[in-house]
Design brief:
By secondary structure, the chain is of the alpha/beta class. It has 13 helices and 14 strands. It folds into 2 domains: 3-192, Thiamin diphosphate (ThDP)-binding fold, Pyr/PP domains (Rossmann fold); 204-327, 3-Layer(aba) Sandwich (Rossmann fold). The radius of gyration is 20 Å and the shape is globular.
Length: 331
């Protein structure tokens, strides 16, 4: 590790994102941070705090409240050589942008025969745990991973957030960068002060194990870790990190080693990301399985009112029950 990399500071996820945006704005004058309320007030979660004053309204652009227009404008800016970093306040607001997202952003590279790149990063929050208003806690990443032409990444720690966001902004592909709201200020960890990149298409081994493979992402990494720590099984935890494209080989290698698999996510169960992961494991590692693949997920309803949010979301007890079900299964 270089001396520069050894210099670090304790950051939480939101301050790691703020630091990354500041460094990328300073490094490349073509980077444009844009979205509603990101200017003088610094964003709804203060992820852009101080950037407007430092870089001005040509690089930090406070926009009207129009999600479809925001994506359309970003596509046009990308086509003329700029690198927009759009803040879509909540993943649930992406519904309003679906037209420009599908017709322009996702398929422009393909429909121009590769002549036009769309180097856009869309930062958006997702997930439950803070009990906000309706459509502020959506986990609809399955819609995104079903869309060709985009990358979808999700950091679970401040260190991951900085490295992945830096790579996303510099990528020539459109990247959806999912930030879990509950993780914004959940904890701090050392993050290098200098810039660094992490691969956008690789999963992360959280801890090795020999008896069961647990695949998850976002806040569920930490929920799953708590559950595993309270049981006496040797569980391998994999942070998916890249939701699209899926980094399939390490998942298959892990399942072939352990013979068991549990998938944990906040997205709804039916046609959720876990269904695709389960199908891939069934296709390519069926003969190594000692038990059926299990999923611990949210339920097939819209995200509920605050009073029942804790029942809706997978928690440590449900994850522990899933682990027990897989570990004690007998053919």
């Amino acid at each position: 590790m270089s001396a520069a990399m050894e210099q670090s500071e304790e950051l939480n996820l939101v301050t790691a994102i703020n630091q990354t945006l500041r460094q990328e704005l300073a490094r490349d004058p073509q980077v444009r941070v844009m979205g509603y309320d990101i200017g003088p007030i610094g964003g709804v979660f203060r992820a852009t705090d101080g950037l407007y004053d430092e870089f001005g309204d040509q690089q930090v652009i406070d926009t009207p409240l129009t999600e479809n227009g925001l994506i359309g404008a970003a596509v046009g800016m990308a086509m003329r050589g700029e690198r927009p970093v759009v803040e879509m306040q909540f993943l649930g607001f992406m519904y309003n942008a679906w037209g420009q997202f599908i017709y322009s952003l996702a398929n422009l590279h393909q429909k121009t025969g590769g002549l036009v790149n769309v180097p856009i990063t869309i930062r958006t929050t997702f997930g439950g745990g803070i009990k906000p208003l309706p459509f502020h806690s959506e986990s609809t990443e399955a819609y995104l991973m079903h869309t060709p032409g985009i990358r979808v990444v999700c950091p679970s720690t401040p260190y991951e957030a900085k490295g992945l966001l830096t790579a996303a902004i510099r990528s020539d592909d459109p990247v959806i960068f999912m930030e879990h709201t509950k993780l914004y200020r959940a904890f701090r960890e050392p993050v290098p002060t200098e810039e660094y990149l992490l691969p956008l298409d690789k999963c992360r081994l959280v801890q090795p194990g020999k008896e069961l493979t647990l695949i998850t992402w976002g806040n569920m990494v930490h929920v799953s870790q708590q559950a595993v720590d309270e049981l006496d099984y040797d569980v391998e935890i994999i942070d998916l990190r890249s939701i699209a494209p899926l980094d399939v080989e390490p998942l298959l290698e892990s399942v072939k080693k352990t013979g068991r698999c549990l998938i944990v996510h906040e997205a709804r169960r039916t046609a959720g990301p876990g269904a695709e992961i389960s199908a891939l494991i069934s296709e390519y590692a069926m003969e190594w399985l000692k038990a059926p693949i299990k999923r611990v997920t949210a339920f097939d309803v819209f995200f509920p009112d605050n009073q029942v949010e804790d029942i809706y979301l997978p928690g440590p007890e449900r994850v522990k029950a899933g682990i027990e079900a897989v570990m004690t299964y007998q053919f």
